[in-house]
Amino acid sequence: MGFFSRTPKVLTDEGKVDALLSRGVSEVIIKDDLRKKLFSGRRLRVKLGIDPTSPDLHIGRSIPLLKLRDFQELGHQVVLIVGDFTAVIGDTSDKDAERPMLEQEIIEKNKKTYFDQAGKILDMSQVEMRYNSEWLKPLNYRQIGEHADLFSVADFIARDNIAGRLSAGKRVSLRELLYPLMQGYDSVAIKADVELGGTDQKFNVLAGRPMQQHFGQEPQNVVLNPLIDGLDGTKMSSSKGNVINLTAPAGDMYGKVMSMGDGQVKTYFELCTRVPLQEIKTILQGHPKEAKMRLARELVTMYHGVDVAQKAETDWVNTFSEGGAPEDAPTVASGKLRDIVSDVSTSELRRLVAQGAVSSVTTGQKIDSIDAEIQNDTIRIGKHRFLKVT
Q: Which of 38, 149, 250, 385 has the fewest CB atoms below 10 angstroms from its CB?
């Protein structure tokens, strides 16, 4: 972990500033003020906080991270905060139920590679990397009371998801009221000029403005990004498995993009890549499958490189268009299916077989028993896994 060692020149290119304030942006607060600051030549401090609630950053997180990179490329100072203290409290902004407190061991485990994962998008040599336990952990009740005095309970319960839970008779803990205070104080601690966040985070990111005014700082501007659905068209959730992790293997990443609905391609292109918008428009005028393949190739290139992306595409075409299997599919010795697929539990394997999800690539026939003898064949398990049996 380190801090920037050189100061890039702040660029005031009008076209890039316009794109910064429009692409992948739902709302800017306050837009005229931020635009003026972007043309002032002053190097702004731009903040994004991410709580380590799971070990992996997924494609939804790439939207604000890409926006951070846009600011970075204009020469502004990016401050990336891993919320190892806010994660204990838990943010319920996008939840319809109370979020449990996370154990410290889980937080410590989850946060280990967050900065490395963010480095797939950002130039980390130019990023100020912080953990918010630095300034939140030392706070005492007197200070927390001072922060809480800036907000009313009415402000908090007016939020749509909180109001909905209350009207449904669901519990809302007092602990949940602390989260916006903590996120707001993050902005004070690092003297943020701009904070990024999803539309579900609006209340939390706005909390930084009165908090900064209270401490004699100029209130930050806010850039909110839209949220995207998961690959299955429902709310994105790591627990549902409908995400693409930024660290996903190339073949898995490519295959997951190809599994999404055609109607999602435009949104993912615009929010999760930096392909020029006019080029995206041209791509989408072609065949939907070709557009999706271009999106898959673009995303794999971003996170794995051009050569790896080309191989992932070749493997996908070979596997799903021509009935073959990836060249690098693992090789195992012949035997009973249950012995060959040794890393899957018997009950899970039995379920896959019952669903017709295990088959011979050579003959196309389903394998109907976990005790079936397999030799000199290639088998498919589920959608994306293959084994060569010799």
A: 149
